[in-house]
Structures are given as structure tokens and as C-alpha cells.
Specification:
single chain, mainly alpha, Arc Repressor Mutant, subunit A, 70% helix, 0% strand
């Protein structure tokens, strides 16, 4: 069994982990079921027992990662958390997941570029769910007067674009930093996450009331 796969995890979990790496590296058309099974330490018969075909495995994998992202965001900040803190926590939590498994960004961004082409129409509720935690925190901040009026979904898109592009560009940034000799091209991931959180929350902050409006 490949060293990258934990033999203590269940077979379906190993298959999903192996499939993420294979699809991320080779795309849907280039990925091979044989390679996924070998990486997961299972035979093809067992893989097909859990996932009847390549298309369903891929679809299930997209939904799995979207649901996991939603759960991560929802767990990071409840509706009782102050909006600014909620956004900071969500950005940090999601970035920790992506930093630990950067291939998730590679995989999901391939499917985004494909227009979610492997999802069924009814699956889009899962896609929409990922946008709600950040959007809801922004909505609360606007209602409380802490954030300026913005389109909440834009904030979700900004965060997702920033974090995922940072992850998928890791090889390019590492090479650029080496060739140009500028380490800031390839910053420490946690520092980048803090920067994104700070920029987003500062950008959302409501303008201070004019002197004459202060009670």
C-alpha cells in the first residue's frame, strides 16, 4: 500500500483520498481507475463496489469536498460569533484544511473550470451551501452597522478565489521565489491567511460616522 495512504482508514475513505490526488494531478480524462485503486490499496472490484463507475466516483468526490468545506466553515463560527471574528475564524479554518491537503484545491478548481460539469442539477444546493457561512456573517455585520453595505456573495467569492489560487499556484510561486530570489513570492501559508482575513475585514468595516452624527 502506498505510504501516502493510511491503512487504518476505511476503504471508501482511502479511495476518496486516492481519487482526489489522481484527479487533481491528471484531470477527469487522464485519471485511471487502476491508479486510484493501487494508490488506495484496494482492488478494482472493491472500488466498484463502493463507486459503480468513474463518473460517479468523481461526482461523489466533488460533493464530498464541497460538503466538507461547508462543515469546516460552519463549525468555525456560529451565528453568535461577532461578524468580524466569524470571518477571520472561517478563513483561518478553511486555509488550515487546504494547507494540509493542497490537492483539494487542485481538484476542485479543475471542476470549477469545467463549470461543475460533472454535477447533477440537484447537486447545486451543495454548491450553494458553501457560500452561506461567509455570506451570513457579512449579512449580520451589515445589519449591525459594523460592515458597509456590500453584496455578501462577493465576499465569499473573494475569499475562495484568494485561498484556492494561493494553493494551486504553490509550485509556480516556489519556482519564482527561487529564480527571482524574492522569498515574498512564496510566503508562509499562515501569514497569507492572516493577510487575507485582515484585508477582507478591514475592507468590510463601516465608515466611521461623521463628527456631527456622533451622539
Amino acid at each position: 500500500m502506498p505510504a501516502s495512504v493510511d491503512p487504518q482508514t476505511s476503504a471508501p475513505a482511502r479511495i476518496l483520498e486516492a481519487a482526489t490526488a489522481e484527479f487533481a494531478a491528471r484531470g477527469y480524462d487522464g485519471a485511471r481507475i487502476e491508479a486510484i485503486a493501487r494508490r488506495a490499496g484496494v482492488n478494482k472490484a472493491l472500488l466498484y463496489y463502493y463507486f459503480p463507475n468513474k463518473g460517479e466516483l468523481y461526482r461523489r468526490l466533488v460533493l464530498e469536498h464541497l460538503s466538507a468545506a461547508s462543515a469546516t466553515l460552519e463549525a468555525a463560527a456560529s451565528s453568535d460569533t461577532p461578524p468580524r471574528e466569524a470571518i477571520e475564524r472561517m478563513i483561518t479554518a478553511l486555509f488550515e484544511v487546504l494547507s494540509a491537503r493542497p490537492e483539494i484545491s487542485d481538484f476542485v478548481m479543475r471542476e470549477v473550470l469545467n463549470g461543475w460539469g460533472h454535477l447533477e442539477d440537484e447537486d447545486f444546493q451543495v454548491v450553494f451551501r458553501t457560500s452561506r457561512p461567509i455570506s451570513a456573517a457579512v449579512e449580520r455585520g451589515i445589519e449591525r452597522g459594523e460592515f458597509r453595505p456590500v453584496v455578501p456573495l462577493f465576499v465569499h467569492l473573494l475569499v475562495m478565489a484568494s485561498l484556492n489560487f494561493f494553493m494551486i499556484s504553490r509550485a509556480a510561486r516556489a519556482r519564482g521565489a527561487r529564480l527571482v530570489g524574492n522569498p515574498m513570492i512564496d510566503p508562509e501559508p499562515a501569514a497569507f491567511a492572516r493577510f487575507v482575513a485582515d484585508m477582507v475585514t478591514r475592507g468590510l468595516a463601516a465608515d466611521p460616522a461623521p463628527q456631527g452624527d456622533r451622539g
